[in-house]
Amino acid sequence: MIEINFDDGKLYCTCKGNKKDKNKFFEEVESCKYLGMQYDAKKKAWISSVGKKDKIFSEFEQHGIDIDEWTKKEINNYFSNIKELQKIIKRSEYTKFDENILKYKPLHDFQFIDITKSLNQNRFGWFWATGLGKSYALAGNLQHYRNIGQVHRAIILTSTIGILNLSYELEKFLPNYDKSKTLVIDSITNLKNRLIFDEDWDIIISGYDSFRSVCDSYDKIINNRKNKVKYRTSSVPLDKWFGNYKGIIYLDECHLIGNPNSLRSKAISMNLKHFYYRYLSSATPCDKEERFYTLLKILDADLVNGLNYFDWLSEYCTLGNRWSRFGINKDTWNHQKWAELQDKLYRTYAVKREKKLLNLPTAYDVPLIKLDMSQKHREIYEAFTYEVINEIKNRNSKNNLGVLENLKNTFSYLQLAIDNPLCLLNTPKFNEFDPKLQAKIKNFNFGKDFTKLEAMDNVIQEECIENNNKIIIAYYHPLTLQELQKYIKTGFDVLSAETPKEDRLKIIENFKKNSNKMLLASINIANSSFTLTEAKAILFLERVWAYITYEQFRGRIYRIGQEDEVRYYNFCYNNSIDYLQLEALKTKGQVVDNLVKKNVLSPEEWKLLFNCGEENIKRLI
Fold first, then answer.
1. Is the pTM of this model over 0.85?
2. Strands in 297-349 per DSSP E
């Protein structure tokens, strides 16, 4: 017999067995394990999301179920109230967006249509491509609710660079915008008082991690804690701060909370009950299906059927592999069921818009520029490859994850020898390298031995000098920036991680107006929340392996206001993992996942992996 209780969206199942049959207890335990339930030693019960109740009840029928009428009633009440979406359906009550409430009218019909949709339901996602005007939609939505007296104060969470940009955008769109009543948290370390919801702000614009830090501060003060602890309930006085008005939150660049186990995601989740209105926006809400969970739950718990993350995942695929019992087996993904979820999402809760709606000029990917490494560079790359292989083998002997799984986690490390060998000087393992390799790295001259610079010069000559265009040169490593500054010398602005957050938007605005033709921009810093249609090309001197970061960066120049063709330049070293990185970006990481699934590579495949060519990359995967 299995006793079932219910609390806070969870089923607690206690295995009681049978006095006459001792094996009955172990059979019940095996059923709990089969269902993927987790055991809580303190409560002496197996726990599962209530959303799996049908599967659980069906499996437990063979053992007998002990559940009282009160628990059944509570479970039914839970599902009756799980759908939080409030939507106006009656045509007589339907509200249309008043385009006169902002300083500027919408430039496109789709903006009017989608803002109107958002005003008739308390949950909505603007999943518009970069440059379609998500800030304008936010401003229109907020101003409407303020005008009708539903909302007074608002919280806006966004990316690092978006913090300052959104304040600028709101000032541009909102009439009677009071900048003195807006708190912009550009850095949590610069915030003198973290108890911001005890103060009289109308709008709070913050990064996701800063919001999490504010939540931590309230927990320490309210609960008189000196040390950091894991807490499950929020102490932030949001209801008091919102007062007699409804709570509203805007989650801009919402892909940043795609990991449900991250502290930033947990901080938002534990405060969701305070936000009657929830609005999300991102050009790329997720790059992998599993990263959709948090966004779905924020929009409406009904979209995940009240399931926790792993229970939700198990609805779409089989969990568990030789490395983890929660490992995701993408080969078992139920694409039909996933398509049904996507249909429900975009039919009711969100809208996806592509950039073609803008009728912009062409965005042109210049044919891949293939280059040979200098002799010094090639020698370093090949020698370092052997070092990496040995490190992978040593790592695998300790964690036993498999050689290819360990290799997957080493690609960014291996990329150092491609992007800038001088970066290897600062790696922890440098002193363990072969002495000959150490000497070659120390003698590497970036300005002379890095042949991508010659190709970069040609692009600068054509774009900046002959065509008189402004361009962005994307880099990843701080050391590469230092070398670029020495090599180019003049005629550029810089946007880096070292740039104070409060100065980043100023640099972009200055670059738009000054005579400099080049913006040296960190791909990790400048990938969201600003517009630079004055630039006509992006040159990727370095890239990242993350598709969302790469794609978002491309969108900085291709958006509303762009009147000319834009071009993207990518360089690739022949016979290197540059090709693998480009293929991974093209396939959103699937190419690497497929590679790891092979488990074993032949000697020929190992050679292909580190010395990829465009013509044989397909043979590898």
1. no
2. none
pLDDT of 325-381, one tens digit each?
778 888 899 999 999 999 999 999 999 999 888 888 888 899 899 899 999 999 999
Tokens 């609805």 locate to 315
Task: Walk me through the domains of the chain, giving residue ranges and CATH numbers.
Answer: 2-81 (3.40.1170.30), 98-288+349-358 (3.40.50.300), 363-368+470-620 (3.40.50.300), 371-446 (no CATH)
Take residue 175 and report the two structure tokens written for it.
């009439």
At CB < 8 A and 24+ separation, what contacts does 448-456 make? Answer: 448/374, 449/374, 449/376, 449/377, 450/374, 450/377, 450/420, 450/483, 451/371, 451/372, 451/373, 451/374, 451/377, 452/371, 452/541, 452/571, 452/573, 453/487, 455/369, 455/371, 455/571, 456/539, 456/541, 456/571
* H/E segment holding residue 54: helix 53-60
Question: Which single residue is written with the structure tokens 């957050």?
Answer: 501
Q: How many CB atoms lie within 10 A of CB 77?
A: 11
**Can you give the pLDDT at residue 510?**
95
Residue 302: predicted pLDDT: 92
User: 494, 473 in Cβ contact below 8 A?
Assistant: no
Tokens of 248: 């509203």
Rounded CA separation 550/589 (Å):
12
Strand segments (E) across 107-147:
123-128
Sign of CA dihedral 612, 618, 620, 621: positive
Distance CA 52, CA 73 (A): 17
- At 278 the three-state DSSP class reads strand
DSSP string, 435-501: HHHHHHHHT--HHHH-THHHHHHHHHIIIIIIS--EEEEEE--HHHHHHHHHHH-SSEEEE-TTS-H
H/E segment holding residue 168: helix 162-173
